[in-house]
Automatic annotation (TrEMBL):
Family, as annotated: Belongs to the peptidase M20 family.
Organism name: Saccharothrix longispora
Keyword Hydrolase annotated: yes
Name of protein: N-carbamoyl-L-amino-acid hydrolase
Keyword Kinase: no
Keyword list, A-Z: Hydrolase
InterPro entries linked to this entry: Amidase_Cbmase, Bact_exopeptidase_dim_dom, Peptidase_M20
EC number assigned by the record: 3.5.1.87
GO-annotated molecular function: N-carbamoyl-L-amino-acid hydrolase activity
Gene3D superfamilies for the chain: 3.30.70.360, Zn peptidases
Amino acid sequence: MTDLADLADVGRDLRRGGYSRHGFDRVELELREWFTEEARRRGLDVRPDRNGNLWAWWGAPGPGAVVTGSHLDSVPGGGAFDGPLGVVSALQAVDLLRAGGFEPAKPLAIVVFVEEEGGRFGVACLGSRLMTGAITPEAAARLTDADGVTFGEAAHAAGFDPLRMGRDEPALAHVGAFVELHVEQGRGLDVPVGLASSILAHGRWRYTFTGEGNHAGATLMEDRRDPMLPAAQLVVAARRAARDGARATVGRIAPNPGGTNVIASSVDVWLDARADDEPHTREVVERITSAARRAAADEGCEVRVAEESWGGTVLFDPALMADVRRAIGEDTPALPTGAGHDAGILAAHVPTAMLFVRNPTGVSHAPAEFAEADDCAAGVAALAATLEHLASA
Ligand code: HGY
Ligand code: MN
Ligand code: MN
Ligand code: MN
């Protein structure tokens, strides 16, 4: 909690509440510096990879490494725990292991992935996607933030060469196991610490509705081609289409030009859709897209749809989960989650598991996100026991 308190003033968003910390922005760079100092203070060897992620090594980097970590960025107006809890807990777990005189037989590393939330450049888990080849460096470099700065430009300004980004075979070959600790993001856990069993399939889509910009007072209702109409109907269609455990959310919408007395000429709407598997998710999105196309046609508007990111269902590694349970208790519950994580990207390439810390309110991606100090301490103890078990001879 002291470490989290260290970060409490970095990146506060006074307008939205909570924190706004985004990949390679001033705030995230400050947090990366904080992490680098904290890791170095512990004698860890901090090395950025070529995709903008930070690695802190206990022992020489090499195959079979036991890796933990998370991210330091947030959604716009996010909470204090989503991301930083996993990083802080990793540092604290190292302290606990050191205090107990533990000598790892395998290399141990803490990783901080860049732009996990996609809050700035739109694609979540950008650092882990680049590292695993789930996105090409060319596509990543072209992603643009709200001010028109590309990821390539931001990476370059932060000291990384966007042309050298992309699938990092040596880095992947080093990871023997990855265990990410994270605050649980629903109300799924009624004990302090649990495991994740799976992550829903999920993706992001951008709908651009185009109509005719015009005057809010002078334009008769029957003369309008207002793209806000189909945009609004998409929101309603999303609520109706997400059934049987699926989730569909419109949390971001951008009318152009965005004036109270202006009929917009175009409106961008971002859809986040998730469900148990790919066919179910695609079916939900297709239903929403059909409704959006019908609504656009009714209003004399055009609509363009672009898939901005996609990730299939993730099942965490049963053998690694069994190992974690041996370290922290056979009765540790495992629960599915609707939230995405870098661990979900890595799971397709290396044995991966997640530890969850209880979330008493079920709130996340909002300023009210919270975890009890005692539960966080239990998370650190569980992570330390896990690392000790996995990194022993
Ligand atoms: O959106 C998500 O589920 C994640 O927290 N990046
Ligand atoms: Mn998140
Ligand atoms: Mn997170
Ligand atoms: Mn006027």
